[in-house]
Design goal:
The protein has eight helices and eight strands. With about 240 residues, it is of the alpha+beta class. It has one domain. Strands 1-5-6-2-3-4 form a six-stranded mixed sheet. A two-stranded antiparallel ribbon has the order 7-8. The radius of gyration is 17 Å and the shape is globular. The two termini are about 15 Å apart. About 45% of the residues are buried. The structure holds glycine.
Length: about 240
Amino acid sequence: MSPNKPMSNNPKTYALALHGGAGPVAGRNYDVVEAHLEKLARECETLLSAGRSALDVVEIAVAELEACGLYVAGRGSAANTAGYVELDASIMDGTTRMAGGVAAIRDFVHPVRVARGVMEKTSHVLLAGSGAAAFARSHGYEEVSDPENYYTVPVGVTAEEMRDSHAHGTVGAVALDQSGAMAAATSTGGTFGKLEGRVGDTPLIGPGTWCDDHVAISCTGTGEHIIRAGGAVSIACA
Ligand code: GLY
């Protein structure tokens, strides 16, 4: 998302974009997903029109996309080849350039909220693996109490795709609030069939998520390609 005119001249302007992942499959029915995204967009619009910050709104939007199980993020994530789910997420505030991410974290309901915690409660930008989980636990972020039964297959994804393909999905939100501030957030369960410890673009500030005072970007696609291409920040600099 990139506004066309300076927001300081138009203080009542706000904007939002959500995504539920790249790679639509021809012939697949996306009615449930589209209805969910539309409802969520309207809820976020209500928040932005009431003056809520872009940072809050992208966190709220991505947290819902993680928890609903419809997308390959949060609850809809698939296990890696070692048999368990690892999650990546990040968030960035365009006004301050503060940012946070978590990589390969296990069994937290809202990785994006932990990413915001990394941004606001630590001096770091990225925490990974058991260290990210220890941080999240120490700050009381909601954990998945029953991982065996929590994770679910996202809408329309076949068991064959989850087993055999390098298919993927990611969720993201970018927002512009009435003060002219922008924010971006992204979350994913990564690619199907990924190796234990594999980290894609999503938790990385620069490739997967970027926000400054001109542009807010949340990437989706195969992370290895996005990282090699430079991803979001290369778009911001173009
Ligand atoms: N873009 C998400 C991933 O590759 O993990």
